[in-house]
């Protein structure tokens, strides 16, 4: 006999929490392998997603101060994973781009994720892209609701 809706929600939340913990563990391992902190790996991923980033964008995404981002970018530059390039829109600032080594780190990480997702999608027959897009949309909406001071769960 199927469980109640509350039991099913609890099971889904437990599974989601397990995915989040497993992903954090993988990021930790991949970061260590690359010789950087997990926050640096998140920065590399953002830069890869967008093609380049500014220090201000990284600070906002990572929730860091400008000084912390400067130090992190210095470390990533010293590790040969990113490069600073002049920002044509702001001559005082720079654009942060992946170096070939940084691109290689991210490509390796993405290949690991893709392998798992392909296997799960094939074994379950579920369109994971659609599911993840729906989850992301829902989480973004919850974030917007929380920022506006509303609680969509009570609506």
Structural description of this entry:
This protein is mainly alpha-helical. 70% of the residues lie in helices and 10% in strands. The chain contains six helices and two strands. It has helices at residues 5-34, 38-50, 55-62, 66-78, 100-124, 128-147; strands at residues 82-87, 90-98. A two-stranded antiparallel ribbon has the order 1-2. Helix 3 crosses helix 4 (66-78). The radius of gyration is 19 Å and the shape is globular. The two termini are 30 Å apart. The relative contact order is 0.08. The model has no long low-confidence stretch (mean pLDDT 92).
Properties at a glance:
6 helices, single chain, 155 residues, mainly alpha, two-stranded antiparallel sheet
Q: What can be said about this structure in brief?
A:
The chain has helices at 5-34, 38-50, 55-62, 66-78, 100-124, 128-147, and strands at 82-87, 90-98.
β-strand number: 2
Rg estimate, integer Å: 19 Å
Shape: globular
Order of helices and strands: HHHHEEHH
> What would the average pLDDT be, to the nearest integer?
92
Return residue spans where pLDDT drops below 50 for at least 5 consecutive residues: none
* Biggest beta-sheet profile: 2 strands, antiparallel
Distance between the termini: 30 Å
Percentage of β-strand residues: 5-15%
Question: What is the helix content?
Answer: over 70%
Number of discrete helical segments: 6
Q: Biggest sheet: strands side by side, in what order?
A: 1-2
Please state the structural category: mainly alpha
């Amino acid at each position: 006999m199927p469980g109640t809706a509350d039991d099913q929600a609890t099971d889904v939340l437990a599974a989601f929490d397990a995915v989040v913990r497993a992903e954090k563990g993988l990021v930790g391992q991949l970061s260590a392998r690359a010789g950087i902190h997990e926050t640096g790996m998140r920065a590399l991923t953002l830069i890869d997603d967008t093609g380049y980033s500014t220090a201000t964008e990284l600070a906002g995404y990572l929730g860091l101060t400008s000084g912390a981002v400067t130090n992190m970018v210095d470390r990533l530059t010293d590790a040969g994973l990113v490069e600073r390039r002049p920002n044509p829109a702001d001559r005082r600032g720079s654009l942060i781009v992946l170096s070939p080594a940084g691109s290689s780190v991210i490509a390796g990480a993405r290949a690991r994720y893709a392998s798992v997702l392909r296997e799960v999608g094939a074994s379950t027959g579920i369109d994971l892209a659609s599911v993840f897009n729906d989850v992301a949309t829902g989480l973004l909406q919850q974030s917007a609701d929380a920022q506006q001071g509303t609680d969509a769960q009570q609506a």
